[in-house]
Amino acid sequence: MERIFSALIKLSLLGIFSFTLYRDATRSITREEAIAFERLVHPSLRDVIAEREVGTQLLRTMLTKRTVGLARLSEFSFRLPDLLGEALFLCAMYRVGRNRPGLILVAATSLIVPDRLAYGLIAAAFATEGEISGVAGGLAIAANPWSAIPIVILWVTRFRQPKGESTILISILIAFIFLAIPVISGHPDSLRTWPTPAADNRSRDAVHALRGDAGARHIRIGGSPELYPILNFYRARYRLSTWENLYPEAKGPFDYYVLTPAADDPELHTIYRNSMMTIAK
Amino acid sequence: MSREVLSILFGAGFTVAVCRSLGTLLHARLGVTFHRYETGVFEFLSGSALLSLLTFFLCVIHQARAGAFLAIGAVSIPAALWTARRSVRTKPFPDTDRFSKLLFALIFTAFFIVYFFNALAPEVSPDGSGYHLSNVVHFWRVNGFDWSQHNMYAYLSQGAEMLFLVAFSFGGHSAAAMVHLAFLFTLPLLIASYGFRFGFPRVGLFAGILAFASPLVGLDGSSAYNDIALVTLIFAVFYLLQLIDEGKRANLLILCGLLIGYAFATKYTAWILLPFALLSIRRWQCSLILTSAALISILPWTLRNWIWLGNPAAPFLNRWFPNPYFSYATEQAFLSGLWHYEGINHWWQIPLEVTVNGGLVSGSLGAVFLLAPLGLLALRHAHGRKLLVAAVFFSLPAILNTGTRFLLPAVPFVSLAMGIVLADTRGALPVLALFHAFTCWPSVLSLYCADASWRLHNIPIRAALRLQPEAEFLRARIPDLELLPAIQQSTSPGDKIFSFTVRADSYFDRDLIVGYESTFGNIAQDALWTASGALAPPTSKQTQRFTEGPIRGIQVRESDSVAEVQFFDRGREVFFLPNEPNLAFDQNLATRWIPSSHEFLQVECAQPLTVDEIVFRGAAVQARLEVLGSDGKWAAPPGLPEYSTEPTPDLRKEATRQLKKMGIRFLLVNSTDYGMERIAEQSQSWGMTQLAEAHGTHFLRID
After folding, report:
1. 3-state SS track over B492-511
2. Fewest CB within 10 A of the end CB: N or C in chain A?
3. Is B457 a member of any domain?
4. Residues B410, B429: one domain?
């Protein structure tokens, strides 16, 4: 009976993970994610640090750069660190499954820190012991400083255990390595958290429509400032060299205009429209 | 390799070799032995104390020349080699894990290269090319102390500069910097030895890396400063005190005392070493030996200043030892400038500035030192407690100076304390050491620290090897040097040039009078500031009328300053010749008498003077006057004074007249100097001619 129960849990966790994976791979990039890409992932790490942009996101930036580098730029590769966090979270849930207070605590952290990589690492810190727990705790704080709240709770509970002090020191050191310099030298804007994917805005469909209409022609695109980062992301994602410089403005002599739906213009011929954006020429 | 580079390397190498050999001889004489790794560093340090002392005496008798230094080397080096050959080979320390040693070696080598080439390159550090080597150049020119030199930096103890002088005699500026570099290389070896000696080798290696790779330590140590020499000496004294504490060697007391004295001779702030050592020993016989040995190096400098200036602690304690060269008021103004943070609005900015940003505190120690509070956990260990007490004790001078440099003496102790805490955490020491080395590497550091942070920017190999002309390298970093040809053409050696700010005067072959560095400079600075309107002009007038008859003197109290005191008899000005020259009686409104706290102006004249009116002029005079009557009694004159305000006079030519009277005929003024923004376009009104200008610095001649 227990084996069947265990298999069922495994299966349901795998199901959750598969669903998350599918969702991350198919959902269009959001504006916030596109801004994060433009600000942190697209430039070199050296530039990001020199421009004091990285703030609390050094770990996320490094991980995302690595996943994007390994798997080419896509919505999936961009969200892969989050997916790893989700996987860690599910594994940790399974591991602490028999310990009900632990399970509740781990589940609760996902509410406190709505950041998949961070709560995955927090869960890993709770589910493991000794130095590995320390490493996971430190990385969780590095991924999202709010993780410090559950991690400190963990420290308090484990301080008296063997290697308790080492665990805490490792966490402090790792969090320090990723956070100290970028946070101290970063400008206040850099302290924002990593965006979590929201509802699908179907911007990928819009870009497909634009590519379909423009073909291989060299085109000049003027976009509403708020849509500009998304266009830039997809330009990089599909390596659209025929898209000449994108212009973060909606007025001027352009071949195409990517506008917010509210900015409708009767002189333009609309080729695509959704709740998020209108593409016209 | 060019001849110039060879002479630099010879100068530095020779100095270090003589230090080491004198140390070898001293250790043999005292019969002290160390472990193999300790021997070299302690011999170098104790030998440097001896060579500094020898050079001091050569300076006193004006025989500090290359020949004399060669003679010392010719005697000491072969004698040391002979002694070393005869001595028993000492034991090495017990070994530690290979990985820690390899990591230490790798990081040490990488930073060694950075520091070596920076030190070998032409000296461009502000104080190095300024007063440290300027003093050395003065000594070198006259083969000894230049008693005519009157600026506050010439009065400081110059134990490190004595070694610089030896190296400078052969290799110039860079050779001096390379000698300081030798202390920098000694520091991590000493810290590592400490770890090996007291049973925590990995901690010692870790702390050595932390101290060595620290950005400010690297920059300071590869410049002709003295801070790292001081840090190394302080740590060496602490090290020896621990050995003495273990009751191992009585003769170590003499060695320890010698190093305490030499640390004081290097920088006044090391005076706290003596009370620290005495508190550590707590046995009066030992204290006596230690103090006596320390005085060997302390007394020469204090006696020099006492005899030369009348103030053994010059340029400080002028209240207790008043002298004509540096006043108490100027001392207070100078010190208050040092202990105030500029641009810092909240206390919590200070640790961030000291460790990461570095822009407002002249350099940073490295982000790792933000973890210094972890070191408090070392209080659980006996060694940790000692290290933390030392860290606090040796940080005390930082209260007097906000520059991060003044926290450097605490760095080895804090590093070791942090290491002790982290030693039991697997991987913590190497990870943190690597992180520190990476984040302190010059090109990485530049990515995140403040632009104004004082740091090494790169590895100037071409400049170091003199493949890039020295003049070109210097001009790019010290813009004032563009004016050097004009200065040399228009002035002759011995001419005085006034400046409001410090300059790289070791490269100028002239006497630079800096406004804040002496009473002499203060008078010139005050006159120029009063005339430019940077100080309140003397528009306030106080008139005191009386009919008592002739007077023989006056006393002025409770006045901020007095620009001029004038005496009238029936409307005709009567000239008062005081028995001592005073700026309030010099017929020049641009100068002023400024009282120190509780000081008042009292002047007397030889002959009684018949006056019916005394006029005080100044910025805001409200003087309480007493006059010395012909009956020899001081009394306040009857009647109330009258106060009035006069139009602002044009005192620009009066100011330059004063400078000329003081023997100053040239000025170096920056457009950014306080009150001097328009001096170039108004030079005619000042009675000056601009001779040259470069990068906003004007070279002017008083016509």
Report:
1. CCCCEEEECCCCCCCCCCCE
2. N
3. no
4. yes
Q: Is the pLDDT of residue A264 over 70?
A: no
Question: Which helix (H) or strand (E) covers residue B530, if one does?
Answer: helix B519-532
Q: What's the mean pLDDT in A16-38? A: 90
Residues of B in contact with A169 (CB under 8 A): 374, 421-422, 425, 428
In this structure, are B342 and B483 located in the same domain?
Answer: no
Q: B350 and B294, same structural domain?
A: yes
Average pLDDT over residues B313-331: 89
- The distance of Cα B199 from the centroid of its chain, to the nearest Å, equals 37
What is the spatial distance between Cα A149 and Cα A164, in angstroms, rounded to a whole number? 17
Q: How far is A171 from chain B (nearest CA, A)?
A: 10
Nearest CA in chain A to B436: A177
Asked if A165's CB is within 8 angstroms of B427's CB, the reply is: no
Model confidence pLDDT, tens digit, residues B25-70: 999 999 888 888 899 999 999 999 999 999 999 999 999 999 999 9
Is A50 within 8 Å of B421 when comparing Cβ atoms?
no
Interchain proximity B424–A166, CB inside 8 Å: yes
Compute the nearest-CA separation of B375 from chain A (Å).
12
pLDDT at B225: 96
Looking at the structure, tell me whether residues B125 and B251 fall in a common domain. Answer: yes
Domain region containing B76: 3-448
Instruction: Indicate whether A263 pLDDT > 70.
Output: no
Nearest to A49 among B425, B435, B447 (CB): B447
Q: Which residue has the tokens 């002496």?
A: B518
Residue B595, pLDDT above cutoff 80: no
Asked if the Cβ–Cβ distance from A176 to B371 is below 8 Å, we say yes
| Alpha-carbon torsion (B202, B207, B212, B213), positive or negative | positive
Among A264-268, B294-298, B612-616, the range with the most confident prediction by mean pLDDT is B294-298
Task: Work out whether strand B511-514 and strand B496-499 pair parallel, antiparallel, or are unpaired.
Answer: parallel
**Distances from the Cα of B635 to the Cα of B562, B625, B627, B641, angstroms:** 20, 8, 6, 15
One domain for residues B629 and B495: no
In a domain, B461, yes or no: no
**Co-location of B258 and B283 in the same domain:** yes
- Average pLDDT of B401-429? 94
Say if residue B99 is in the same domain as residue B149.
yes
* DSSP β-ladder status, B613-618 and B564-569: antiparallel
The answer, yes or no, to whether residue A267 has pLDDT greater than 80, is: no
Contacts A165 to B, Cβ<8 Å = 424-425
CB contact under 8 A, B357 and A185: yes
Lowest average pLDDT, out of B100-114, B557-571, B639-653, B684-698, goes to B557-571
Interface contacts (A, B; CB < 8 Å): 52
User: A89 with A59: CB under 8 angstroms?
Assistant: no
Chain A: give the shortest CA distance to residue B104, in Å.
20
Residue of A nearest to B349 (CA): A184
Residues from chain A that touch B427, judged by Cβ atoms under 8 A, are: 131, 170
Q: Collect all residues of chain B within an 8 Å Cβ-Cβ radius of residue A61.
A: none
Looking at the structure of chain B, the number of domains it has is 3
Q: Is A59 left (phi over 0), alpha (psi -120 to 50) or beta?
A: alpha
Residue B455 falls inside a structural domain: no
**What are the pLDDT digits (tens) for A139-188?**
999 999 989 988 998 888 888 887 888 999 999 999 999 999 999 888 87
Interface residues of A toward B, Cβ cutoff 8 Å, are 46, 49-50, 52, 131, 165-166, 169-170, 172-173, 176-177, 180-182, 184-185
> What CATH number should be reported for the domain holding residue B627?
2.60.120
